Amino acid sequence: MGIAELLNLKDKKVLVISHRGADVDALASAAIVRLLLLGKNYVEIGVPEHLNNSAKRLAETMEIPYSLTPDFSFFDTLVIVDLNSYGMLGSFAEKVKNFSGNIFLFDHHSKGKDKIAKEEDSIIVEDAASTTEVLWRFLSANAQDKLNEKIALLTACGIIADTAHFSFASKNTFKVMAEVFEKTDKTLSELIELFSVKRELSERIALLKAAQRTKLFRVNKLLIVLSEIGAFESQSAAALIHLGADVAFVGTAEDHNIRVSGRARFSLIQEYNLDLAKDIFHKLSDFFEGEGGGHATAAAFTGKASSTDQVLHKCLELLIAKIKEKESKLEVKEY
Ligand SMILES: [Mn+2]
Question: If you measure from the C-alpha of residue 162 to the centroid of ligand 1, how many angstroms do you get, rounded to a whole number?
Fold first, then answer.
């Protein structure tokens, strides 16, 4: 088929799916695909389980309709955005596995072992800042005329959110942003406004508790922290990096369902050739039931274990093994 065929679809029933807990990039990417195909096809957006608050805000400001319970049997085409592993599909995973129609996929996460769509129907650019950036580059190359203001705004929102306001921008990010600004009169702060939400009290309490409960390790010159909280684990891991950690792993447990989120300082990628997704989170499924994935500096695991602590310490162990490849002498100290 070939992924460029997506642009020629006509009279199809298309379901666009993002990952569980859809974030701004996931929803914005789905909205871009919807806008591309609308008019010539019937298009719906499906999100497994839930969206985060910023994505919900974007859905309001950009008027993006979505469903948490799409009827898969109605559709003949799937477009998957911002994920490449069945684990990230949550309750939709089985339905996607059993889907018999065409499947297209756009993503920027580290490639896992799953093959959701055929190679020629997928574009996975691991060094892109966001999936919206991948889509923008795809359209620039194949359908310049489709690049309108609405798609530009959505592209910018995905980039700004996934780069934490340009902290992790890729080589092409600013080129894409420059092209975006040619399509709109909005300023950067007006773009940020499109998905801004006030942080709730519960989130701020969780972050401060995560900081209070850290276990701190020094491995040579690196500071690594482990922590456990009731929710907001990914935000907490990011906050701990801002506080001074080089790598942070934060876990939460609901019954025996455990989620662990990891963040690493960007400089470690080059210095230690570290990729959190490949070196740590993909490997967790060798030790625990569940699945992990993500990016070089931000990744997560969802699965089962007898305790969160067990998973956190496995993350630490795998990280130390990776550091060992670079440094012959290791001095590990717990504070
Ligand atoms: Mn993304």
Answer: 6
